[in-house]
TrEMBL record:
This is SnoaL-like domain-containing protein. InterPro entries: NTF2-like_dom_sf, SnoaL-like. Residues 22-114 form the SnoaL-like domain.
Amino acid sequence: MTEASPLTLDRYLAATDRAVADKAALDDLLGLFAPDAVVQIDDTPVQGAAAIREFYQGFVAFHTATKHYWNTTVLPDGRQRVEWVCAARTIDGAVITVAGIEHAVIGPDGRIVELRNTFTRRPG
């Protein structure tokens, strides 16, 4: 029996939790993005490796722990869709929950070209 390898969005969410737990793992997370990728987690998109690095550095610096749970599917058009929830602790000690749905266009090399998030539960 052969197991399918994790989809890119599966690797993305797992890498996000690892990067928060161990800031040295941030490069693993960033390696999942194409050099000119676009990420839109909220209203303002960021594009390119430098902007994406800055965005995720801020994300991991703000959290001391995160734990995501998710279900990923591949849509008929080839995009990946992930419905996720997260419990987290922030640097000020607050405990928060957040949830959303992300859609990603994945390039031929398996890296994220475009990632767009819609919150179904805003952080709080």
